[in-house]
């Protein structure tokens, strides 16, 4: 089966080079591949074009829906691997949407990529609800797990399955990145961390926002809370550098 990707423009798959903007690898030069489709529906999602297609009635604060044909494209695993390798970056970030929904196809892509770019390190951005395919998991150096809190609008039984959180808490390659819009969200993180034994050293807190002004206003108080609870603040570097645009 081919991979289903998001697009930068109609027909153009969202495979690109940039600086990683968030989490533990922020600032590193990377290649990105953005997959389409998601099993959750965050009302503030900044990549709703990967899942909120015409006819999808799940809520999103923008109210916008997207034409599937213009915002989704398929590639063979071979083609995707060749495009990634051609970017010449030392690290690949697989993102979405929810990329682990396509684990088997991604495993085949990474097998080919390992032949084309054997030194490339691979990290994955996931909402943490989907178990990784074993052949895919064997090739991953780092998981950036972003469990969705109550303010995302997702039911907790879908967004925060206890068995999955326990798995990631026990997985040393998994780093946790929580999106924060208000101080109460931090309290929710602290409860989850205690309940599932997530080490503070593996928790990043990131302000929700798609413009520098909103991010700066929230990072002011979020920085104080990170200091208070010995957690790490994540910037959204790509928003500051490039704005809220595709392919960055």
Describe what you observe in this structure.
The structure is a single chain. The longest helix is centred in the last third of the chain and has 18 residues, at 212-229. The relative contact order is 0.15. The strands form two sheets. This protein has an eight-stranded mixed β-sheet with strand order 3-4-6-7-8-9-10-11. It has a three-stranded antiparallel β-sheet with strand order 2-1-5. Helix 2 crosses helix 3 (103-116). It is 33% helix and 22% strand. With 248 residues, the chain is of the alpha/beta class. Strand 1 (3-9) and strand 2 form a beta hairpin.
Number of helices: 9
Total beta-strand segments: 11
Q: Write the CATH fold name.
A: TIM Barrel
Radius of gyration: 17 Å
Class from secondary-structure proportions: alpha/beta
Looking across the biggest beta sheet, what order are the strands in? Answer: 3-4-6-7-8-9-10-11
The SSE string, one letter per element, is EEEEHEHEHEHEHHEHEHEH
Query: Would you identify the regions where 5 or more consecutive residues have pLDDT less than 50?
Result: none
Q: Indicate how many domains the architecture comprises.
A: 1
CATH arch. level architecture? Alpha-Beta Barrel
The outline comes out as globular
Q: What portion of the residues fall into strands of 2 or more residues?
A: 15-25%
Q: Name the average pLDDT.
A: 97
N→C terminal distance: 27 Å
Major sheet attributes: 8 strands, mixed
What percent of residues adopt helix (DSSP H or I)?
25-40%
The CATH top-level class label: Alpha Beta
